[in-house]
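Hello, quick one for you while I still have it in my head. A protein chain has come my way and I'm curious about its shape. Can you walk me through what the tokens say about the fold? No rush at all, and the record is pasted right below.
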Amino acid sequence: YTQFAWTDFNVTYDSATDEFTATVKVKNTGDMAGKDVVELYTQSPYTQYDIDNKIEKPSVVLAGFAKTSLLEPGAEEDVTITVDRQLLASYDYMNDAAYLLEASDDYYFTAATDAHSAINNILAAKNADQSLMSGTGSTDLVWQYSVDEDVTYNEAVTGETIVNHFDDARAEDAVYLSRSNWSQMDNNGLRYATDEQTGVSNANVSGSERLIYTHKASDELAALLTTNSWEASGNPKSKDSYSAVTVDSGGHMKLQTLIGADYDDPRWETLLDQLKASEMHTLYNQSGYCTQPIESIGKPNTYDYDGPSGISNFLNKFSPYGYCSEITLASTWNQELAQQFGEFIGEDGLKTNTTGWYAPAMNIHRTPFSGRNFEYYSEDPILSGLMAAKTILGVQSKGMYTYMKHFAVNDQEVNRSDVGAAAIWLTEQSLREIYLRPFQISVEQGGSHAVMTSMVRIGTRSCFGNYPLITEMLREEWGFRGMVITDYCMGIGSGFSDQILAAGGDMILSTAGERLTSVKGDNRSLTELRRATKNILYTVGNSAGMSATTGFPIYMIILIAFDVIVGIGIVVCAGLFIVKPVIKNRKQKNPKQ
């Protein structure tokens, strides 16, 4: 609609906050009113240390963005973007298990309309050969930064020390694409085949040669892919380390008493002591589209429904609004709009008695072929994370909790569930910097109080029952406070139920009845059920659900009605089979009768 000019680009560093602040003046130089988006990119040096230690770095990284207000022709606005310095660091999974900011003079910031323009700007600032550029670059929009000595970031926001959690998800003998060796992309690129032969072979494809790397799972690996149990979760606690748990203490405290209470308030323990094991177990394994009521403590039934393009309520009479897809929302690059979108969802929740929203979804557009790309924001973790965080802030401002999903690495629909769920093999650097970053931003900046895990596996371990993912990363490193639910489960056995509970999961999304654990009643089962119960009560207790009325979830009423109808049908059919022969027999004996 119009054109814009950018001037006065500047970046400052505040050592007290360890943050960069970038500013640029945006002026509408056209004839129509409009808004513009300023994207801030960074470039970190790619060093010999990176090559030797398999640290991968893209040429430029999106660090932040901001959209102007509506500018009339001739109007201008100063745009400000703040970025943590740690974002310039790369995760060194081979050595330090920490984020490493290497000593160098070659760190760059640039304001640009897109990644290609960002690269051109930086190449221009380096006086690079014009043939390397896809267009002209602006040196006025570049700022160079120096780091005098290596800086290691190994402390999480919670104070926990950052460590590797997913070494077992790295395929040691696999060939990974590397910036240090583009020859792997020669002859139609790097490919993996499903052939049972191991090693490297050549194959003719459309008249040209390419390398095909083929692997066959070992017996040990195959066994891990089919094992579901408490131990398979990766929970390091031994059975003997769990102490006895108090249940059914006979107290009279109500959940309402703890509305607004801190997660570490000691009164939670008093409330939890009152509960029966059966009440905690019901909360854990009957959570399909609801959280179950507990009459003894005044916990109401709450309703949870799908998303993310509005509340997808197919279980009762309420019909909320439908909104645009997340990819459309992300294309606006408007964080204010994302927060308003969230507020609208929250308002719909209030009007439809919906307390939990199975959204927003924030996996990465890794390929164009994922069946759920319309549910996810983008191929970029920063864009995805910032839009999701604002959406969550908007939704939760109305008292609705958001189950951010699918946690994590879900990027396909084929083989994403059941025993054959896809096993994703990757390095911890790519996991942290790409696939987990939107979720991390949504916890640390959006304050999400609920999470839905994905059906796939990281390495051999299911995300449903993944202690390193759910407990060590999500809760201990990022500081998440709230409840974790599985994606929809059908036909899982007690071993899988054990694994989910042991990993730190709080609820099973199932409408097919109880999913019993094999260790029901022992100390470790009761301890983990108590933990799960606290997370659910804390989340629901601080939501609009506390004003809801108790009762059966709608799907249970539907199932009960269905059972009654089927039962009547069986009785009627049985009666016909019995009565008809009797009548026929009597007619034969006494035709007049």
Remarks:
- The chain is about 30% helix and 20% strand.
